[in-house]
Each structure stands twice: as structure tokens, then as C-alpha cells.
Specification:
Layout lengths: L7 E9 L15 E9 L2 E7 L10 E2 L5 E3 L1 E6 L17 H15 L2 H18 L1 E9 L4 H16 L4 E7 L8 H13 L4 E5 L5 H15 L3 E5 L9 H11 L6 E5 L8 H13 L2 E5 L1 H7 L17 H6 L4 E3 L16 H12 L14 H6 L16 E3 L5 H4 L8 E4 L2 E2 L17
Parallel strand pairs: 1-4, 6-7, 7-8, 9-10, 10-11, 11-12, 12-13
Antiparallel strand pairs: 1-2, 2-3, 5-14, 14-15, 15-16
Helix pairs in contact: 2-3, 4-5, 5-6, 6-7
The structure holds zinc ion.
Zinc ion (ZN) binds next to loops.
Length: about 425
């Protein structure tokens, strides 16, 4: 359907207002308009409203199928991915995940093991239509010396297919060893990475945050936090991060993931935190699939009572940039997942109510994470940008989000890619217990 020449006209394409800033068209109540896209030499040369009169001969009529820009997945863990067969989570809890992953990392994460699982994950993400991806890298000694070189090699190998970023990951108590943390921050800077830690309510949290911000300022790094991945209302590290950003005068980008406990706190506390988050220009990413899996997991075989996700609607209403992302895939933190951002968006629609109206929620898997990751031109469809987009079967939200869209067409640089999902059997030899 998509000519291999990389130069053609697509007509009768359904585009969403939130993803096509330059398109002058009459958008319907769902935010869609029919359009024509011209592609020349692998780039989009024009996006115009569809009319029979402006449809040249030889045009490919897509019959109203939805076309979206390629996805940006801003929070993943491809160093952990796919270890489930050899190291499952014994009880589905957060502590079960932490302990199982820590044991597997210490015993099994050689450079070869990490590289092969990372490559498997990236092939899946690419086949599903992802173009930019940030992974965290467990950076507890000595793993940082193993995983960062693997990441740098992988980033080179994938350049042009997936723009790969990495953030270091360690519990913030690791910052107490100031000399070691300074060395890690320099290693991250050398790899053009992002400085990341997991925050929780330690007595010296404010001092530790100051040290994290000091390193980021000194080295010119963006920041990425895992915060408050718990139902405990007393967990307020999101607010502490915002306060630290303000009093340190931080000017880089800050992305904060999870923030689950915010949904369990009294309204007045929530409003105070969100004021500070907006003022400090933090962006927030929710990980709906992982949160649904780990949060409210009950030991007594009773039913979970809350969805685990943070207050994205309230954040967006205040102008806080909000995204959703994959998080873990087939590891003790999440038994499932395949880095399919359409699945993430479908699940987010159901768990977080990205509908009635859909509004600009599609930006949460495209242009918003692209901005946080400083990926210029990613996550939108506009004349002059690379012809990187996904052609779906669905012609409406209900058609798009009801089926897995396994037969979607992923177009990169104007050409349809071969969509090969790797075979799980490839990893069998790494999974021997
Ligand atoms: Zn995570």
C-alpha cells in the first residue's frame, strides 16, 4: 500500500487536531479531520485538508484510516526487560519485584545478557511504531560499569530507527556516598544521559535532593525521578522534588514518574503540591499498566480497590506536561507488556479516562514526551518533518482502541518497515534457571 519509492500522495487520511498543528481543517467532535499527506524523498512535503479537487492522479486513498506520528516512550526499563521466565515476581507485590530483580541483576546481568534483552525490546518497540525511547539503567555498583557501555553501543546501533536515551536509576540513599555518586553523575554526563534517582520519605530526603540537583546543575544534566510509587498518603516526595527545583533555581527538564500516592492524599494537600509542580515546571509521566499491576496488590486474596494511577487530569488542567509510558516489560515489576505504545494509550484511555472528550490526550504518547526528551520534531505530523508515522485500520477512536491493530503499517522515512516481532524463543538460552 505504501510505495517503496518514498515519494507519493496519501488521500483520505484521518488526522487528529492535537497531532497536526499546521493543518487548517474542520475537525469533528472527536478531533479528527480528513486530510491528504504528500511525501517526497522520505519527508512530509505537505499536509492539507482532504478535498476531491486537491487529490492528484495516482493518489493512494486510505479510506479514512487514522494516521498518527510515531510514538515516543519516555519511561522504560529495557535493562530489566524479559527476565520473567527465569525470575518471576513470587507474589505480585512491589517488594517482591524489588527483591527478585535485585537478585537477578547481581547474578545474571552480564554485558551480553543485558545487550541481548535490550535489543529484543528495541526490535519490539520499533515494530510497534516507536521512534524515541528513554530507558532507566539500574546503576547500583557494579552494574553501572556494565550497563552504560552496553547502552552506548546500543544507541549507536539503533540510531536512525529509535532515538535512545538513558537515565541512571538508584535509590536516593545511594547519594549519601557523595564521591561515588559524583563519579556516577560524570559517567552519565559522558554518555549524554539523564540523572535519575528513586525518591522516598527518608529523614534526609531534602539534603539528598540538593546533592542530586547540585550535580545536575554542575554537569548540565536533565533529571528523571521515580517518586512515590506507593499507596501511602505520607509519601510526598513529588512535592519535595518541586520545592528542591525551585530553591535550586534548576533550569533543565525534570520528568517525574509514578506519583501514585498523590491520588490518596487530601484535596488541599494535592492542590498545594500541584501548585508547586506547575511553578517548578516539572513534567509527570504515569505508568498505568505497571501501576494497575503492582498497586493495591493484596496478600489476603481480596480484590484491588483503586487503579494506582496519579492525577493526570488535574495536572493537565494546570498546564503541567503529562505523558504515559510503558515502564516495565515481562520482568518482576510487570509480568506483561511489549513496548507497544498503542497498547499503553488504549490502557490509559480505560484506566485514566482519556476520553469524552479525547481532547489533546494523544499528545501524552507523542509530542509531550518528545518535548521532555528534547526530541525536536518528534511526535507530530507537519510539512518538513520526516515521514515517520503509523497507518492504522481504525477510522475512529472506538475502532482504533478496540482491536490490537496488529496489522498496522509503520512508515519510517516514507517507507513501510518490515514489522518483525522477535520470537521469545530467541531468549530461551538466557532464561535457564
Ligand atoms: Zn520505572
Amino acid at each position: 500500500m505504501i510505495p517503496a519509492s518514498g515519494s507519493y500522495h496519501l488521500a483520505n487520511v484521518r488526522l487528529h487536531a492535537s497531532l497536526t498543528p499546521g493543518l487548517a481543517a474542520a475537525f469533528d467532535a472527536d478531533g479528527f479531520a480528513l486530510a491528504n499527506i504528500a511525501v517526497a524523498d522520505g519527508r512530509i512535503s505537505s499536509v492539507v485538508a482532504h478535498r476531491q479537487s486537491n487529490t492528484p492522479a495516482g493518489t493512494i486513498d486510505l479510506g479514512g484510516r487514522i494516521v498518527m506520528p510515531c510514538f515516543v516512550d519516555c519511561h522504560t526499563h529495557i535493562d530489566k526487560g524479559h527476565i520473567w521466565p527465569r525470575k518471576p515476581n513470587p507474589d505480585g507485590t512491589f517488594m517482591g519485584a524489588l527483591n527478585a530483580t535485585g537478585a537477578d541483576r547481581a547474578a545474571r546481568w552480564s554485558a551480553d545478557d543485558v545487550a541481548r534483552r535490550m535489543d529484543f525490546s528495541l526490535r519490539s518497540a520499533y515494530a510497534h511504531g516507536t521512534k524515541g525511547l528513554r530507558t532507566h539503567l539500574d546503576s547500583v555498583a557494579p552494574q553501572e560499569e556494565i550497563s552504560w557501555p552496553v547502552f552506548e553501543t546500543m544507541r549507536e546501533q539503533w540510531r536512525g530507527r529509535i532515538e535512545l536515551q538513558a537515565a541512571c536509576l538508584l535509590g536516593i540513599e545511594g547519594v549519601r556516598d557523595g564521591k561515588w555518586f559524583e563519579g556516577l553523575a560524570k559517567r552519565v554526563a559522558a554518555a549524554k544521559g539523564v540523572l535519575g534517582v528513586v525518591t522516598y520519605m527518608l529523614p534526609d530526603l531534602e539534603e539528598l535532593l540538593d546533592q542530586v540537583f547540585a550535580q545536575a546543575i554542575k554537569l548540565g544534566l536533565d533529571l528523571d525521578f521515580h517518586a512515590d510509587e506507593t499507596d501511602a498518603a505520607s509519601a510526598i516526595s513529588l512535592k519535595k522534588i518541586a520545592e528542591a527545583a525551585l530553591w535550586n533555581g534548576f533550569e533543565g527538564n525534570i520528568l517525574v514518574g509514578h506519583c501514585c500516592s498523590l491520588a490518596r492524599q487530601p484535596d488541599l494537600d494535592v492542590l498545594d503540591t500541584l501548585d508547586k509542580v506547575a511553578k517548578a515546571r516539572l513534567a509527570v509521566v504515569s505508568l498505568p499498566m505497571c501501576n494497575l499491576y503492582l498497586q493495591d496488590r493484596r496478600a489476603d486474596n481480596t480484590t484491588p480497590r483503586w487503579r494506582g494511577v496519579t492525577l493526570l487530569h488535574e495536572m493537565k488542567a494546570r498546564g503541567i506536561p503529562v505523558a504515559v509510558a510503558s515502564d516495565n516489560t515481562r520482568d518482576p515489576f510487570y509480568a506483561y507488556g511489549d513496548l507497544d505504545m498503542l497498547e499503553v494509550y488504549r490502557m490509559a484511555t480505560r484506566i485514566l479516562h482519556f476520553d469524552h472528550p479525547v481532547g489533546d490526550w494523544p499528545q501524552a504518547v507523542t509530542s509531550t514526551p518528545a518535548k521532555v526528551m528534547r526530541l525536536d520534531g518528534f511526535g507530530m505530523l507537519a510539512a518538513g518533518s520526516a515521514a515517520d508515522f503509523v497507518v492504522f485500520r481504525g477510522r475512529s477512536w472506538t475502532e482504533l482502541l478496540s482491536r490490537p491493530e496488529s496489522d498496522r503499517i509503520v512508515v519510517r522515512d516514507g517507507r513501510a518497515i518490515e514489522r518483525h516481532l522477535p520470537d521469545y524463543a530467541e531468549l530461551d538460552e538466557l532464561m535457564v534457571k
